[in-house]
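User: Hi! I have a protein structure encoded as tokens and I'd like to know what sequence might fold into it. I'm fairly new to this, so please keep things simple.
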């Protein structure tokens, strides 16, 4: 039909608790609880994921987490009305801003009762938003691998 090529995907497990599907040509690095992904063709575009398991207390909502981030990063934010993850049961909030260098920073929180995943995406100045689709599709593909018990204290 068109000249779109079908991209081969792989499933990666950044943590024992969840997995993500990304293009097979993705490069990856891990530092503590942060997993970073990029493609050599657009190496200035980076997706980073970190995650936290709640072991006690009340879960903080995705909206509150994003609000806290917005207060910390005093930029002009655009809060998304659309969800990045297709599961309507996942509490989620996403916002973005453009920094002084023209880099678009996208921050997204996916919150389950017992687990939170924080995704950041840096889109370089001049890069078409469509070139970041692989990363956004990856965030949409995130799947928890186990039901984690929560001990509330």
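Assistant: Happy to help. Inverse folding works backwards from shape to sequence: for each of the 153 positions I chose a residue that suits the local structure. Here it is:
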């Amino acid at each position: 039909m068109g000249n779109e090529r079908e991209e081969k995907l792989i499933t990666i497990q950044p943590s024992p608790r969840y997995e993500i599907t990304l293009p097979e040509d993705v490069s990856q690095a891990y530092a503590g609880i942060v997993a970073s992904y990029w493609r050599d063709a657009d190496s200035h575009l980076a997706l980073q994921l970190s995650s936290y398991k709640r072991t006690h207390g009340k879960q903080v909502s995705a909206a509150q987490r994003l609000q806290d981030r917005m207060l910390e990063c005093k930029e002009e934010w655009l809060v998304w009305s659309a969800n990045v993850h297709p599961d309507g049961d996942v509490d989620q909030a996403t916002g973005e801003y453009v920094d002084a260098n023209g880099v678009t920073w996208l921050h997204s929180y996916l919150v389950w009762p017992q687990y939170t995943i924080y995704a950041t995406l840096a889109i370089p100045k001049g890069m078409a938003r469509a070139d970041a689709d692989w990363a956004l599709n990856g965030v949409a593909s995130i799947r928890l691998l186990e039901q984690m018990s929560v001990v509330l204290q």
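A useful reference point when you look it over: The first strand starts at residue 9 and ends at 15. Feel free to ask if any position seems puzzling.
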